[in-house]
Amino acid sequence: MKEGYLIAPSILSADFSRLGAQIKEAEQAGADWIHIDVMDGHFVPNLTMGPFIVKACENITSLPLDVHLMVEKPESLLPDFAQAGADVLTVHIETCPHIHRTLQSIRELGCQAGITLNPGTPAGSIEEVLPFVDLVLIMTVNPGYSGQTFIPEMVPKITWVRNVLDEVNPEAKIEVDGGLNVQTTPEAVEAGAEIFVAGSAVFGHPEGIPAGIASIRDALPH
Ligand code: DX5
Ligand code: ZN
């Protein structure tokens, strides 16, 4: 995994009538990953995209594709997303009763394995599988929509997970997702996050995508 702080713009906030151009613009402006939010209308209320959008992204960017699966029963979909070009596959603990096996399957498909949890789910619920992940995604909003407000009470969760990872899996990174902007990014950095998903702060920036990426980059230590 690339070292240092990474910015992963979430295309959920992009203009889908110009998706390819917007991804290219993000890539040229220094995005590190492209974050793709997959929602099934069951686990979360919203319904978004499937493997064919991942494939379309794969065709137009060389950036790693970071696929966040907000779906029930993600196991059955993993091969399709891997085949479509996903580099990171992140599943929710709330949807995976056999999480150890699911993480193994992701790695067997050649992808990096990510685990995530809703704001209301205790960090302890993922403790036993922390040795088996490449990243932990801490949700700082309730999954489902872009443009929500960062929940500051999640910051101690980032710290707790980082401390446990330092013991059992120091290579693994922490990613944060939801309400990240110039104000909230420094708190997440301080707590130990290294990968920053940003939807509205990038694609909804009033001065455009490059200004949005620059605003997050400026909020990171450098
Ligand atoms: C929320 C998604 C996020 C979302 C982030 O369910 O997982 O990736 O797109 O959008 P912002 O940065 O606007 O909160
Ligand atoms: Zn996401």
Describe the structure.
- The chain has 222 residues and is α/β, with parallel strands linked by helices.
- It has a single domain, classed as TIM Barrel (Alpha-Beta Barrel).
- The protein has helices at residues 19-28, 51-60, 78-84, 99-108, 155-168, 185-191, 200-203, 209-219, and strands at residues 6-9, 34-39, 65-70, 88-92, 112-117, 135-139, 173-177, 195-198.
- An eight-stranded parallel β-sheet has the order 1-8-7-6-5-4-3-2.
- α5 links the parallel β6 and β7.
- The longest helix is centred in the last third of the chain and has 14 residues, at 155-168.
- Zinc ion (ZN) binds at residues 10, 35, 37, 68, 177, 197.
